[in-house]
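Reminder: ligand-aware prediction takes two inputs, not one.
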Amino acid sequence: MIRRRRYGTRRWPYGALLVAGLLVAACAPAPEGLEFPPSREDGGSDAPSAAVEECPAEAVPPAQDRPLISLQFSLAENLRIVTGTEQVRFTPDLPTDELVFRLIPNSPLSAPFGNLLTITDVSGEQVSDYGYESADAYPTTPGGLLVVELEDEVAAGDSVEVLLNFELELGDGTFDRFGTADGLSWWGSGYPLLSWEPGVGWSRDQLVTLSGETSTSQAADTTISVEAPEDLEVLMTGDQDRPEPAGDGRRIWTSTEAAARDVSVAAGQFDTADAAAGDTEITVGVLPDADADAAELAQDAASIIEEFEEFFGPFPYDTLSIPVLPDFGGGIEYPSSILLATSQRFILVHEIAHMWFYGMIGNSQFRDPWLDEAFASYAEVLVDASAPDSTDLRTPGDIGGSMADFPDTDEYFSVVYGKGRAALVTAREAAGPAAFDAGLRCYINSQAWQIAVPGDVAVAFADLPEALRILEEAGAFR
Ligand SMILES: [Zn+2]
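Here is what comes back for the chain with zinc ion:
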């Protein structure tokens, strides 16, 4: 069965969107002390100018009423404690009387190494209470979800604002999104991650022991500041400004990203080098004892971006920052940033592909991990022109399985990455590369900055029954 979805069911009707914007301005005064940067108050230049088409010629812009998030992190001198605040303005498309945030450092994958995220305060005019839910978090942590209860239900299209205070402890460095090493700290998803899926509601998926992402998060208009010891360079999600002195031997780094589902930060004694791919600025940072050459790596990333733009359209961000961590054997994608902990080129290729498949086209990484991982794995083949192992297609298991369907990381990787890549490559051969690439471009452009579901792939490939049959046989549409 292929579940087809009609376009427009989850989208904001654009007329209503303008009304909702006025309601936000009229009915939702900021709680005292909450001041957002003015990036969204400039008259809505990102408002779509035409009705949604099934296959728009360009990526549809981010929704105008997407979440507005302002993060402030302060890294202690010991490089192991980050104190933070998060200001959120959230406009649900369904009524709700709570806010749910995912606390990824408390997962059974991360917490055993000493990572921990605790909430120290929650405030806001509409807040009545807050607490934790387990969601299979590691037992020594307070929980995997923060649930903020509201005084009253917020109607669809109205907005709610909250201020969260938190503390993040960073553990020992491993292949993970949090960690420390000599003179180095990094944290991705190191704050309460707003977990709303438009048209569906709050995502409360459990945290898992598999090595992989399980989040569902909207692309948010995001500003970030990081205060850190002045001998460290900071590389993070977003277009970064020059650091400013903050006194006491510290500096403040700031960045903005117009549509970010999550945020990564790395602070270390990086030597940096830049390169450009069209309008995209790439910054690579390497540690003093690293084997990697920052300039070479930046240039290589630029060439990979240019290759992908031929297939997927313009790179989704103005910048890409790549802090190179010690070799823990992998890479982790974040919006406009990659935590790169390997010298293997195909991993850099894979993570850059995620800027489209995850960064721009979002998905439930718990329910539909193939929408980011199979497509990023498929993209590797486009750049290095290697033929995937065709026997991967015979691996038992559905590529469209959820994170709960795989008993361990090996099986998850072999099915979702390996078989998923083989299915997409085979589908492309069956449909013809030009027709397949056009169908994929249709999916990318129509689902940009949203949270896609497998049915959206089926809609985009509706005229390519050979391709759909291969994906269906591989278990993509369950
Ligand atoms: Zn991946």
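The radius of gyration is 21 Å. Residues 1-36+53-269 form a domain with the Immunoglobulin-like fold (CATH 2.60.40.1730). We will return to this case in the review session.
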